[in-house]
Amino acid sequence: MIDLARDHHDTPLDPASSDAVAAAGLRLHRVEDADLAQTSAWLEAEARGFLDSERNDAQRRAHFDSNAYYRKLGVYDDEAPHPETPVATFASWVAQLTVPGDVALPACAISSVTVAPTHRRRGLLRELMTGELRAAAAVGIPVAALTVTESSIYGRFGFGPAAHAASWTINARRAGWAGPETPGRIDFVSRERGREVVESLHERIRRFSPGEIDMPGGHWDRFFGTRPDAENAEKTRVLQYRSAAGEVDGLVLYRVTVNEHDYADSSLEVSSLLAATDAAYAGLWRFLLSMDLVGTVRAHELSVDEPLWWMIADRRAARIEVRDHHYVRILDVPAALQARRYEASGSLLLHVADPLGFAEGRWLLTVDADGRGHVAACTGDAPTDAVAVRLGVAELSAAYLGGVSLATLARAGRVESSDADAAARVLSTLTPPRLSFWY
Ligand SMILES: CC(C)(COP(=O)(O)OP(=O)(O)OC[C@H]1O[C@@H](n2cnc3c(N)ncnc32)[C@H](O)[C@@H]1OP(=O)(O)O)[C@@H](O)C(=O)NCCC(=O)NCCS
Known about the structure:
Elements (H helix, E strand, L loop, with lengths): L1 H9 L4 H9 L3 E4 L5 H14 L7 H10 L4 E6 L11 E12 L3 E13 L8 H15 L4 E5 L12 E12 H4 L9 E5 L1 H16 L12 H6 L12 E6 L5 E10 L8 E10 L2 H11 L5 E9 L15 E13 L2 H7 L6 E8 L7 E7 L5 E5 L9 E6 H8 L5 H6 L3 E3 L2 H8 L12
Parallel strand pairs: 4-5, 10-11, 13-16
Antiparallel strand pairs: 1-2, 2-3, 3-4, 5-12, 6-11, 6-12, 7-8, 8-9, 9-10, 13-14, 14-15, 16-17
Helix pairs in contact: 2-5, 3-4
Bound molecules: coenzyme A.
The site of coenzyme A has 18 residues, from strand 4 and helix 5.
């Protein structure tokens, strides 16, 4: 796995993309991770692209120290007044994506996608994305994944919204508690102490949570405010849940915004809630919903199927907004479909359309009684009992983790099938996928 990450990081630039960028009078270049001036200029362009302010020395240094694992591409305009600052940025690395069956699959995680407003809509994103997908596929990475600022950008490149996220706004006074009593204890811990235990706790959780990836380097320090460039870190509070056996099974990071006009109606924003057991989950939520002076509790990037819904006494105390969140793009159909496990046996003849070519073809997916899938390119006649499904790669990718049913996609006119319900049974999962953060 380490080799795949290194291969991907160091793989040469895609020649077709480099040529197309050069034909436009620009230059595609991979940023040298050991060159602080280069990484700082790249960071500046990325921050500007996301409407952020100029970076300071602490931020440049922290980025340099913690982001060497990023494969960072920049497009440079040598005619610009500051030619060292790229006009487009793109980063990727090999993450471990949990797929149904609690299997980890290498995924090309993509981030930092920006094109300067001065150079937009000239096809730079298209060149960067198509070139980097080709590079990822060439080193053997079976899927790509990203989170998005806008949902309208990535469907054209074959990405489908595979895991949705729910934002909750809870009237804490009204919610009440109808969930279980929990035997553990809850204590405040310092940010540094929380940071020490969070990695192992997250690893316990994400391996059994389809849709999650391993936390990218430097993210925890950003969340806990334990890196030198952290801003307002002192506002973050950390609680831990310790089981009766003494194990730290849960952590929550939150910030409070005081209501100056009515102190007793202040707002608490959950930055991250990690629970490795049901007891830790119930214990931490109950604690958050019963804090003095807190009238509103907000949390984002929750699952669309939170047990919390069944734990509050008054469901109308919660407003829930669902959004598309984790996008997945299948690059290698056999590798992706064989990696996950299935709840139902059956055979599907998948006719996949992929304008970029990676997933294009007729694929026969056969799922055994033990839930393992076997995939073969189907050139001749398919078995008569195979359910035919005709769909695009974005739809297959959206359904891959079980985040949407093929039957729903068929009803939406996005999939054609000889028996959409039977096809849906094969790909469906018991719990919806989830990703608990942005990257
Ligand atoms: C989104 C962004 C990277 C697009 O870059 P770009 O170089 O202008 O995109 P391209 O010219 O390569 O466009 C490729 C295609 O995507 C479409 N497209 C580009 N940006 C789009 C957007 N924001 N919404 C919808 N479609 C978009 C283009 O119309 C074009 O469509 P086509 O396939 O029909 O030709 C750029 O606008 C940007 O930096 N936005 C701000 C930062 C951001 O939100 N980044 C995305 C992070 S997830």
